[in-house]
Amino acid sequence: MGNGQEVIATAQTVYAAVYGDSDLGSQLSFKVYKRRWFVLLVLCLLNCSNATIWLTFAPVANQSAQYLQVSLEDINWLSVVFMVVAIPLSFFTTWMLDTLGLRPTLILGSWLNMLGALLRFLGASQFDGSHQKFLVVMLGQMFGAIAQPLIIFTPTKLAALWFPEDQRATANMFASMSNPLGILLANLISPAVAKTSAQIPTLMVWYTVPAFVVCFLASAGIWSNKPPTPPSASAETSGSEPFIKGIKLLLRNKAYLILLVCFGSGIAVFTCFTTLLEQILLGIPSVGR
């Protein structure tokens, strides 16, 4: 009993030194909110929508090339642009999450994702010249590519801020796996809807409507970066190193560098095969301009 009182007294002393308040109970008030599941749902839907926008044209490369009157190589760039844009913007996204927080990052990502989907629809349906069509569609893909890092880098931050420790792995799993789910849906929806090149504008509608819905949910439903009361002690004290210092620490971490090379190589191979899978399996000939 005496030992327990000593521990409490020591903890109160530490909290008094840190917070200027010896009331330990007031400092250890944690609460979980049902709203955390809504925030997680929005992130899952946004991640899924962005993945479908990334891979829209790959499963119907031949039809897309015929409709836009470009080569298959140009169609491949509609997917590859996501990888090109993600590399430099990943540093900005990391800074934005640490500096501005979860809410502006998700809302910006949702608007960029929606604008990208809208531009693709307008480019495919409202422009007559093949050159104009492709440029507007590519611009829409670039907006989606800019949104991608803002979305796929967010799951761990959301899980840490909104969920208690025993639910973080589950929340992170749902948010992260929604991206492969979007890839699966794109491989199912695109061939089912765009059986001919004339149906490409209809295909754009299938991906534009969900992007609008998710953008509305994110803008209207996410009110704060984190809950009013932290869900756990680790969430209350969670933080990260300053951006530049954190980058330097990572570059000196051998275990991280090995993981970076191995995991990055695997993702690169997966991305390559996902983008070119239809052309590899069917042996589609090049479609000239």
TrEMBL record:
GO CC annotation, single: membrane
The keyword Transmembrane helix belongs to this UniProt entry's keyword annotation: yes
Pfam families on file: MFS_1
Localization (cell): Membrane
Single GO term (MF): transmembrane transporter activity
SUPFAM superfamilies: MFS general substrate transporter
Main localization (coarse): membrane
Membrane topology designation: Multi-pass membrane protein
InterPro entries in the record: FLVCR1-2_SLC49-like, MFS, MFS_trans_sf
Keyword set, alphabetical order: Membrane, Transmembrane, Transmembrane helix
TM segment ranges: 37-57, 77-97, 104-122, 134-153, 174-193, 205-223, 255-277
Superkingdom: Eukaryota
Gene3D superfamilies to which the protein is assigned, alphabetical: MFS general substrate transporter like domains
PANTHER family: MAJOR FACILITATOR SUPERFAMILY PROTEIN-RELATED, SOLUTE CARRIER FAMILY 49 MEMBER A3
Protein name (Swiss-Prot/TrEMBL): Major facilitator superfamily domain containing 7
